[in-house]
């Protein structure tokens, strides 16, 4: 089932590929040139129910009987098989997203495998709780905690980093002994489907890993999140969808982990290493065509270096090569779809209407006829927008940013926190005391100092406010994917 030959994307239920029982399908389209990649089989209510029933059954079969050591070894085997088939996963990921192959082969696919290894190790090294307890009769008692799988986990995945963010959830869920029903984005069905082959190859029991394709409301997404056999739901995506999932999870009082939108700031102080700050901000604004939840859309620069920073960032952005995924020189691929292109363009047009200074970009690049139907967009930088502009307030999710000067530490902290979101921030300064002082006052779940997207997978990952609920990574993921029972033994 090599991605280069995939004409159809089937659901993967109880260890088998199958079409949707209702016969519904939809097209998978290349964002590079608008061409037809394949046909996706949409899961019906009955299909989702079959997937949940299979996942429930697997909780009582060989998967449940497997020792922790054997389960961890199986996760390592999954990672090894992803590595062995890296070219297949790369082809599937690039076909769906249009992102540069040079990016996907260094981040998306290796991290997809690493997510299984890190949690295979983490689950073996998390200590349990133990408390000796005095009693009135003097004999005492002991209290100790037991962890057990939460059950069937509904995994709702985004399209921007399909394999990486899906395995970021599936890895710890399986490490803890759960089973999963995955609903990948309708835009990016490839790698989630392909992973089913890996599961079968390494001998993962049937029903442990299931994939159902479709859309959100009235389709597979709603069917998964509303199914009462799904014991918990983990989601990465936009805030509006996360709110709908949270409402669905309230029926049955099921647990949720939500990593949602962001309008992330970067703060560049005058004493920053400017070369590093330019390089880091270039990546945080433009990598993956700006389609990164952790990406920067608001840049605040201390006034003495404001003009220099704007000019240098614009020069670097102009030098980026917009091109097809298989060109090693490509820096910027297309957006995920024509629909998203129109959304981003609407913001570009609003910026002009609001009187922004368009430093670079603002439109659609002129490319060859062979890719003219793709979802291309120009990297764009603005200045001179008001702090309450929709461009400054709303998440755009494109290769763009607004740059604004500031004059004091207190001012920039207030500006950075003036948002409904609270996912990530980057602070650039060589003053360690200032770095700590500012980072501690920002309302975000992640704050990088003199770096961006430097990740240790053991650390907490998640946002505040409208950016999410809960934390993922290391022991924090294990907390979500397990239930804890306290045993009190009277001596």
Gist?
The protein has 17 helices and 23 strands.
Structural notes for this entry:
- It is a single chain.
- Helix 3 runs antiparallel to helix 6 (108-122), helix 3 (68-84) packs across helix 8 and helix 11 packs across helix 12.
- Strands 15-16-17-14-13-19-20 form a seven-stranded mixed beta sheet, with helices on both faces. The chain has a six-stranded mixed beta sheet with strand order 10-9-8-11-12-22, sandwiched between helices.
- It has two domains: 3-260 and 467-490, 3-Layer(aba) Sandwich (Aldehyde Dehydrogenase, Chain A, domain 1), CATH 3.40.605.10; 264-456, Aldehyde Dehydrogenase, Chain A, domain 2, CATH 3.40.309.
- The longest helix is centred in the N-terminal third of the chain and has 17 residues, at 68-84.
- It has 491 residues and is an alpha/beta fold.
- It is 37% helix and 22% strand.
Percent strand = 15-25%
Q: What structural class is derived from the secondary structure elements?
A: alpha/beta
What percent of residues adopt helix (DSSP H or I)? Answer: 25-40%
Q: If strands are numbered along the chain, what order do they take across the biggest sheet?
A: 15-16-17-14-13-19-20
By DSSP (H or I, 4+ residues per run), the number of helices equals 17
Q: Could you name the key traits of this structure?
A:
disordered N terminus; Aldehyde Dehydrogenase, Chain A, domain 2; globular; 22% strand; alpha/beta; 7-stranded mixed β-sheet; 2 domains; 6-stranded mixed β-sheet; 37% helix; Aldehyde Dehydrogenase, Chain A, domain 1; 491 residues
